[in-house]
TrEMBL record:
Entries under InterPro entries matching the protein: BBLN_eukaryota
Annotated coiled-coil segments of the chain: 28-69
Protein name as it appears in the record: Bublin coiled coil protein
Source organism of the structure: Poecilia latipinna (sailfin molly)
Pfam families, A to Z: UPF0184
Domain of life: Eukaryota
Keywords for the protein's UniProt record, in alphabetical order: Coiled coil
Region ranges (Disordered): 1-24, 70-103
Amino acid sequence: MSGPNGDPNISSEDGIINDDDEYGDEEYAAINNMLDQINSYLDNLEERNDALNEKLHELLESNRQARLDFRAQLTGSPTQEEHHALEQESSLPSEQDQHEENQ
């Protein structure tokens, strides 16, 4: 019969595997506490990682917008905000249109 790791020269009856419970309740409690602490640290690390990832995305978006604005200034074309403002102005009736409607 093969051993616990598939080693053909070791059998499980050779007494190498001892299923007797050698650990007391205190040891299990200590291990549980350590695992809980590790889990808490990992949760904290995951939250920090998520926060950093969110900040990175915000920074990348801000950088992209600044690059677009800078490129628009160099080429003389309106920025997105200016383009949006121009669209809003063109959708509003002009003073002349309002004067003609009132007559």
